[in-house]
Design a protein that fits this description.
The complex is a heterodimer of chains A (about 475) and B (about 575).
Chain A: E1 6-9, E2 12-16, E3 19-23, E4 32-37, E5 43-52, E6 55-60, E7 73-80, E8 82-85, E9 93-95, E10 111-114, E11 125-126, E12 131-132, H1 137-140, E13 145-146, E14 153-155, H2 161-171, H3 178-182, E15 184-193, H4 195-208, E16 214-220, H5 225-245, E17 249-255, H6 257-270, H7 284-292, E18 297-298, E19 304-312, H8 321-329, E20 332-336, H9 338-342, E21 349-356, H10 359-362, H11 372-396, H12 403-420, H13 429-440, H14 453-461
Parallel strand pairs in A: 9-16, 14-19, 14-20, 15-16, 15-17, 17-19
Antiparallel strand pairs in A: 1-7, 2-3, 3-6, 4-5, 4-7, 5-6, 8-10, 11-18, 12-13, 20-21
Helix pairs in contact in A: 2-4, 5-6, 11-12, 11-13, 12-13
Chain B: E1 3-10, E2 13-19, E3 26-30, E4 35-42, E5 47-51, E6 63-70, E7 72-75, E8 83-84, E9 110-115, E10 122-123, E11 128-133, E12 140-143, E13 151-156, E14 160-163, E15 167-173, E16 178-182, E17 185-188, E18 197-199, H1 210-215, E19 223-227, H2 234-244, E20 249-255, H3 259-271, E21 285-290, H4 296-314, E22 319-325, H5 327-340, H6 354-363, E23 366-369, E24 375-384, H7 394-402, E25 405-406, H8 411-415, E26 428-429, H9 432-441, H10 447-471, H11 478-495, H12 509-531, H13 536-540, H14 543-549, H15 551-554, H16 560-586
Classes of the chains: A alpha/beta (about 475), B alpha+beta (about 575).
Chain lengths: ~475, ~575
């Protein structure tokens, strides 16, 4: 931490929720960080939220219970909150405000970055176009992730998003020899998660050896709400350092953003702001954007920051403000489904509402495989038809269906059981594609309007080149 | 200049004690960094300022300096092919890749000027005094600012290079003042630029997208809105229109949207060629980028900056298309600032003046006779991002009242990767009737008739699909099954158009007309076959059907022979089936 520039004693006048009101005896600026030392020696972080001629409003980032006005010292840093980072970041575990939790030594503080980050000029951005493999067919083949993208996972309470998060953290890799040449790291931030989940993340990653290439930030459910707002910012600051200073490709997994938004609502309410939809503040879109928009690539710099934020949709409602606003900022979404989960399909990804907007730039000839775009488009179209046929079958019964419709039904089941479902094993993209072609073989070739004649011939009809489907 | 002393600050809003007079909506600078702001409320002893930048570090006591002007931007030859933030400050310099507070407006640049007036010539406000070349292949005019009085030229610079902020023409004004005119001039963004007259909109603004040009066209000088939930393809559609539409200048306002999208747009626009001039698309484009993580109040201003830039090019006699992506983000910025000011919220928390602001914005679209006597137009296309994809929310409902064309995007279509996901039953165009003559004159004599035919079929399809869901497709009468097949053809081959397909991303009016006619022939032919007793499925299973389905994808622009071959194949197939049916009937 930097040294305090100014210290004020006996200037606290009033405390209300997370807000502390001070008399303005010192010349300090908006948004600067402060440390409040209680009479009992406890130290809490805060930042200046508003200023007028007589008073300073400080928003406390730690729990304010037990805070007294008498005997409280306030130290002003004279600058916004910063995270001091340096080499040796990988493999470390921090809390939500960047303090080591693993008993290791403090970091070599070579750089100090504002945790809020700065907006990247759109002109300075490199359009993301390089594939990143997660090991899940539903993502790699159907909704490919590219480096520099932000692709959230919309989950619900009781769905296995923790498991998916860990699997991605352990299995994600760059294609070919890029990984060795350019470096790949994971920044994993647990935001407002229960103690058990935190332990689960730490243990699983240790077990698989992924922890060595990971920086873990753990903000527990018991930590203060204001700290919750900082956890993703510290994590993203670490990611930006790794990406743009050390030149690595960084995958940031943030879970669970719903906890973040709840904290935002709580802090907003305690400030007495006019609420917008469902009590969330009107600036939630802009606030979430300051997190999500930190994904990207910068021209002339080797690294990249890719984000997979995870959120749980309250009551599985995709129109709830949290998933809704997120979807408007992020480049697509991966949606989990309770029905698939009940049928023991893992990962239970519901493909129809899932989308990766940047997929088109990262796949195809020279990126993944020349036929990847057409295959994904055809699978989507046929699966969507199959879903409609299922509805029809529910009304008229399977016997009332035409032959083609029955083939579609079979395709739909096959698709879910063999393509979406893959259990615990990661699949390489080639395996995913083979599984895709094999699923399409059950359909009449005349119905495949998204494939050209060569693709139909080569992958579906010509048995000489046919590979055995991956089970 | 008036000054004021800051007394209170929170987020992007500050209050200050004025020393001297401030005007409402006056632009101000704050502190040593000269942060930009605008006065949004005045009282005798206090002004309220909204800042367009990050306010970290500001404190009471900091000085606020008035500019004496309403929030204005400098219009000039440097704008074309440029990339700016919401207040028209260039962001093309990427030595520092981050947006930081206190960015400066464009520095003066030198341009080649060729005069078109002589000493002694009378000049009206808004008249051209010469041409400016900025290396983009588009000749720009240098205009007398519309807010100056007319007069007589007393001196004019010779052809040559001059800095764009130096006077090049001197005028004795009618009111006795001596005025100097430079290549650039300032204009307040919230004030529409004056015109001589508004003209009727009877020409289409062609987009190269069949579903728009043929079914829901927009006129030059018209307005269009694209409402759609997330993931329905608003941005891709706007970008596609930006690439292929027949405007002289495109103003693209990225208002509170994604940074990567802007990067993608910039990369693509600098690679792609304008199909008409053969020069890079970026040269006819002005990009105003205020991404979602850039300061929110500048987002509010960016829409006005964009439309003022568009009007500036219109006044030079050009056809301009402005794309605002997205107007919902702009409305949210209004709401956010309104909330900070403690204004009484209206519907869904938006300020009560939301509707009138939207009306003001769309009203600035027009085809006009400019003050200089030229014809120019501004076409406005706005994306709307309704929360939860619910079209009954305030921004969508108000927008709907003011626009001439509406392209409603459908989540179901998008989920099936059917793009553009414009839903024919949730879209409309009020100007289709006005544009029928244009299509007629272009040689597509059956445009209006076929358009109606297609729309009716699509309408019938929706009804029959509902029925099919209950009784099953096979149980329906043959005629209804045929309707479904024809609608499938219209949907799959005509309405669906991949923005990423080399052949199909752009369709010229002639290609659209040919495809329309071919589908028309199929519909008529298959109805004759149906009358002759041929089952609709038998028609669908003909090889020509798959060729028709994929014609957009497979036949490239300008390959008229392939189209006529397909036409012949279709005619032959129908004749053959007809003969078979007759023979079958005779046996």
């Amino acid at each position: 931490m930097t040294y305090a520039r100014l210290v004020g004693e006996e200037i606290a006048n009033r405390a209300e929720g997370p807000l502390l009101f001070l008399s303005r005896s010192l010349d300090v600026g908006l948004n600067e960080a402060v440390e409040v030392e209680g009479a009992d020696g406890s130290v809490r972080l805060g930042r200046i939220a508003a200023l007028d001629e007589d008073s300073i409003t400080v928003e406390m980032l730690d729990d304010t219970a037990g805070l007294t006005l008498q005997g409280t010292r306030v130290r002003f840093f004279g600058e916004p909150l910063r995270f001091h980072v340096g080499p040796g970041l990988l493999g470390r575990v921090f809390n939500g405000i960047g303090k080591p939790l693993d008993g290791g030594p403090p970091l070599a503080a070579e750089h100090a970055y504002r945790v809020d980050g700065l907006p990247i000029k759109p002109t300075a951005r490199e359009a993301p176009s390089e594939f990143l493999e997660t090991g899940f067919t539903s993502i790699d083949l159907m909704n490919s992730l590219v480096r520099g993208q932000k692709l959230p996972l919309f989950s619900g309470g009781g769905l296995p998003h923790d498991r998916i998060a860990v699997d991605i953290a352990c299995n994600a890799r760059l294609p070919g020899d890029t990984q060795e040449a350019e470096g790949f790291a994971i920044v994993f931030a647990g935001i407002g998660i229960p103690h058990d989940s935190a332990e689960f993340f730490r243990e699983e990653m240790e077990k698989s050896g992924a922890l060595a290439r990971t920086v873990l930030f753990l903000n527990l459910a018991s930590d203060s709400s204001a700290q919750r707002l900082l956890a993703p910012r510290f994590a993203l600051t670490a990611a930006e350092y790794l990406a743009f200073i050390e030149g690595m490709h960084v995958l940031v997994i943030l879970t669970d953003l719903t906890n973040y938004c709840e904290a935002l609502r709580e802090v907003s309410a305690s400030r007495g702001e006019v609420p917008s939809r469902k009590g969330y503040p009107g600036y939630m879109y802009s606030d979430l954007a300051t997190l999500y928009e930190r994904a990207g690539r910068i021209r002339g710099k080797p690294g990249s920051v890719t984000q997979i934020p995870i959120l749980t949709m309250p009551n599985d409602d995709i129109t709830h403000p949290i998933p809704d606003l997120t979807g408007y900022i992020t480049e697509g979404q991966i949606v989990l489904d309770r029905d698939l989960h009940r049928r023991d399909i893992y990962p239970p990804i519901r493909l129809l509402p899932s989308l990766s907007r940047l997929m088109k730039d990262g796949i195809g000839k020279g990126r993944t495989h020349a036929d990847h775009p057409a295959l994904a488009a055809q699978l989507y179209a046929s699966y969507s038809q199959a879903q409609q046929t299922r509805v029809l079958a529910g009304v008229v019964g399977e016997d009332g269906l035409s032959d083609d419709d029955r083939k579609l039904l079979l395709f739909g089941d096959d698709f879910e059981q063999k393509l979406i479902h893959q259990g615990v094993d990661a699949r390489a993209l080639e395996e995913s594609m083979a599984a895709g072609w094999s699923a399409l073989r059950g359909l009449p070739a005349g119905e495949l309007h998204r494939l050209d004649d060569r693709q139909i011939r080569e992958h579906l009809l010509d048995r000489a080149t046919r590979r055995e489907p991956v089970s | 200049m008036s000054t004021a002393e800051t007394t209170w600050i929170s987020g992007p809003v500050l209050r200050a004690r004025p020393d001297g007079a401030f005007r409402l909506r006056e632009s101000v600078t704050v502190g040593d960094q000269a942060l930009l702001g605008e006065v949004i409320r005045i009282a005798r002893d206090e002004i309220t300022v909204q800042l367009y930048e990050d306010t970290s570090g500001l404190r009471p006591g900091i000085e606020v300096t008035g500019s004496g002007r309403l929030l204005s931007i400098r219009l000039g030859p440097a704008i074309l092919a440029g990339i700016f933030d919401g207040l028209l400050r260039p962001i093309a310099d990427i030595a520092d890749p981050y947006v930081k507070p206190g960015m400066q407006v464009q520095a003066a640049r030198r341009f080649h000027f060729t005069p078109s007036v002589c000493v002694g010539d009378p000049l009206m406000p808004g008249a051209a005094i010469g041409e400016v070349a900025n290396g983009t292949g588009i000749a720009q005019r240098c205009l007398v600012p519309a807010d100056l009085p007319g007069g007589r030229v007393t001196a004019i610079a010779d052809a040559g290079e001059y800095p764009d902020d130096q006077p090049i023409c001197w005028i004795d004004a009618a009111d006795g003042r001596h005025l100097a005119v430079a290549m650039t001039h300032a204009w307040p963004v919230r004030v529409p630029r004056p015109v001589q007259a508004r003209l009727p909109s009877d020409e289409p603004m062609l987009t190269g997208q069949r579903v728009i040009d043929c079914l829901f066209p927009v006129a030059r000088g018209g307005t269009g809105a694209i409402p759609g939930g997330f993931g329905t393809g608003k941005t891709v559609l706007l970008e596609t229109v930006g690439k292929w539409c027949n405007a002289d200048v495109i103003v693209y306002v990225g208002c509170g949207e994604r940074g990567n999208e802007m990067a993608g747009l910039l990369a693509e626009f600098s690679e792609l060629e304008d199909p008409r001039s053969g020069r890079p698309l970026l040269e006819r484009t002005v990009v105003i980028a205020n991404t979602s993580n850039m300061p929110v109040s500048a987002r509010e201003a960016s829409i006005y900056t964009g439309i003022t830039v568009a009007e500036y090019f219109r006044d030079q006699g050009m056809n301009v298309t402005l794309m605002a992506d997205s107007t919902s983000r702009w409305a949210e910025a209004l709401r956010e600032v309104s909330g900070r000011l403690g204004e009484l919220p209206g519907e869904a928390g938006y300020p009560a003046y939301l509707s009138s602001r939207l009306a003001d914005f769309y009203e600035r679209a027009a085809r006009v006779r400019t003050l200089g006597g030229e014809t120019g137009s501004v076409t406005l296309l706005g994306a709307v991002s309704p929360p939860s994809g619910d079209f009954s929310e305030p921004v969508t409902t108000h927008t709907r009242r003011y626009v001439g064309s509406l392209w409603g995007l459908d989540a179901k279509r998008a989920q099936a990767r059917f793009y553009p996901a414009i839903h024919p039953l949730q879209s409309y165009s009020l100007v289709a009737g006005n544009l029928a003559r244009w299509w007629h004159n272009t040689g597509c004599t059956r445009w209006q008739e076929l358009r109606r035919r297609f729309l009716t079929l699509l309408e019938d399809e929706a009804r029959l699909e509902r029925m099919a869901r209950i009784i099953g497709r096979d149980a329906m009468p043959a005629r209804q099954r045929l309707v479904l097949i024809c609608a499938q053809l219209i949907n799959e081959c005509f309405l669906r158009q991949s923005a990423y397909s080399m052949n199909d991303r752009y369709a010229s009016p002639s290609r659209q007309a040919v495809m329309m006619r071919l589908i028309g022939s199929f519909i008529e032919g298959s109805e004759r076959l149906l009358d002759a007793g041929v089952a609709p499925e038998a028609i669908r299973d003909q090889p020509v059907f798959r060729r028709l389905m994929r014609m957009g994808e497979e036949i490239e622009e300008g390959d008229w022979e392939a189209f006529s071959a397909l036409d012949q194949e279709l005619t032959a197939t129908i004749r053959r089936l007809l003969n078979e049916a007759r023979e079958g009937g005779e046996e």
